[in-house]
Amino acid sequence: MPKSAPSSAPSPASTGTLTRRGLMFILSSPSGAGKTTVSRMLLEHDPDICISVSCTTRPPRPGEIDGKDYHFVSRAEFDRMVADEEFLEWAEVFGNCYGTPKAQVKAGLKEGQDYLFDIDWQGTQQLYQKLERDVVRVFLLPPSIDELRRRLTGRGTDSADVIAGRMDRARSEISHWDGYDYVVVNDDIQACFEKVKKILEAERLRRARQTGLIGFVRELMQPGG
Ligand SMILES: Nc1ncnc2c1ncn2[C@@H]1O[C@H](COP(=O)(O)OP(=O)(O)OP(=O)(O)O)[C@@H](O)[C@H]1O
Ligand SMILES: Nc1nc2c(ncn2[C@@H]2O[C@H](COP(=O)(O)O)[C@@H](O)[C@H]2O)c(=O)[nH]1
């Protein structure tokens, strides 16, 4: 029969005590493979993770909302933020600049907030170098190059030139797949989402993250407790 917890040690879950730092859950892929789609599904189904909203100099696509999808900023404003070290990481992608604002994420992690990042491999490397222990890196692959082209075209948000540029970059982006902890092929969207969700759930339970449980475990181990 399993031993129950001593009555003097209420479980951290039941008391709502913080049991770990937040984690940084990164989704990367070649453009069009489906990170935004999977991110939206995660955010919809998991109230305990929130998105890190990036700054970008790219113009908004139809339907994109400033402050929700991105903070759309001018090049001059982006350069100022770089100079003032306001980014945790930043990179130039497809001729535009993208960056992760530092302030909100750093404070939230301390309070146990998990963050989702839809960023490229350059940003992933920078976050890993700075905050290795908090980072979980997931790379999505398309089922084929033809399907990637179909998805970019079918999305209907980019001109033929932009799509051609993104297709040109796809192979070199895929070559960075070995810089990730997990790799998931996004063939069926629901199956892909379920796999990504399981990765997040398992990573939350890593012993090394659950430093807040140390006191609880010590109490459980007290003789005669
Ligand atoms: N498994 C899937 N099967 C079919 N279509 C998909 C699948 N996943 C995503 N899509 C579609 O493919 C298109 C591209 O997806 P999405 O915008 O999520 O890609 P992305 O990786 O975020 O691209 P980008 O890096 O350019 O922002 C969208 O129209 C989306 O609905
Ligand atoms: N290094 C970073 N890359 C980012 C960030 N925000 C988005 N991205 C990546 O840029 C490309 C293009 O995005 P799109 O929205 O213009 O299609 C894609 O790979 C994103 O993941 C960021 O803050 N830093």
From TrEMBL:
UniProt lists the gene as gmk
Pfam families per the UniProt record, alphabetical: Guanylate_kin
Going by the record, the broad EC class of this enzyme is transferase
- The protein depicted here goes by the name Guanylate kinase
| Entry-linked SUPFAM superfamilies | P-loop containing nucleoside triphosphate hydrolases
Broad class of the protein's primary localization: cytoplasm
> What one GO molecular function would you report for this record?
GMP kinase activity
Residues annotated for ATP binding in this entry:
29-36
Q: Which UniProt keywords apply?
A: ATP-binding, Cytoplasm, Kinase, Nucleotide-binding, Transferase
Q: Where in the cell is it found?
A: Cytoplasm
The answer to keyword Endoplasmic reticulum applying to this record is no
Residue intervals of the Guanylate kinase-like domain = 22-201
Asked if the keyword Cytoplasm belongs to this entry, the reply reads yes
Function per UniProt: Essential for recycling GMP and indirectly, cGMP.
Q: What is its EC number?
A: 2.7.4.8
Q: Please report which protein family the annotation says this sequence is part of.
A: Belongs to the guanylate kinase family.
